[in-house]
Amino acid sequence: MKTVVLALLLGLPTIAAATPPPGTHGQPAPAPEPMKRFVWRDEAAGYTFVAPPRWAGKVRAVPLESVELAKSGATSGVRFVDGSKTLLVLLATEESRMQALTATGVSELSRRGEHVVAVKMAEDGGELALTNEELASAVQWDGGASGTVSR
């Protein structure tokens, strides 16, 4: 009796090890899924820009050079491009520098406290152009609070 129990106890781990879990041996890895969202984060200004899904995989974010930032009066900024075509430019600054920023042809998109995000839209964004509603909801401030929008 003891030998039967001992044989069963020793035999069970070998039976369990003989059948590998599905997907680990002999099966190809799953195909990677394309990115479904387009998100860009500005740590310095404290906001995240969330574009519609149609931007995913097509549009890339290019941070602005310090020369461009100095020229505009912004503290941080990014250009969203599709190939060589600029779709829009986001600029962030403090409220005290906003007048200098609007003098460069940008319009205020959102503000929260002393921080302001301004936007300069491309004249022809084609199918990737954002609607006013998409643009208004694209800026998400840290802490989940929404900013105010004025145009």
What can you see in these coordinates?
- This protein is of the alpha+beta class and 151 residues long.
- Helix content is 24%, strand content 31%.
- The protein has four helices and eight strands.
- β6 (107-112) and β7 (115-121) form a beta hairpin.
- Mean pLDDT is 79; it is low at 147-151.
What do the pLDDT scores average to?
A: 79
Q: Structural class, from secondary structure content? A: alpha+beta
Query: What percentage of the residues does DSSP assign to strands (E)?
Result: 25-35%
Helix content: 10-25%
- Terminal Cα span: 86 Å
The largest β sheet comes out as: 5 strands, antiparallel
- C-alpha-based Rg, rounded: 26 Å
Uncertain segments are 147-151
The coarse silhouette is elongated
Order of helices and strands: HEEEHEEHEEHE
Q: How many helices does DSSP assign? A: 4
In which order are the strands of the major sheet placed? 3-4-5-7-6
Q: What is the number of E strands?
A: 8
Summarize the model shown.
This protein has 151 residues and is an alpha+beta fold. The protein is built from four helices and eight strands. Helices cover 24% and strands 31% of the residues.
Keywords:
151 residues; alpha+beta; 5-stranded antiparallel β-sheet; 3-stranded antiparallel β-sheet; 8 strands
Sequence-ordered SSE layout with sheet pairings:
Blueprint: H1 2-18, E1 38-42, E2 47-51, E3 60-63, H2 66-72, E4 76-82, E5 85-94, H3 98-102, E6 107-112, E7 115-121, H4 132-138, E8 139-141
Antiparallel strand pairs: 1-2, 2-8, 3-4, 4-5, 5-7, 6-7
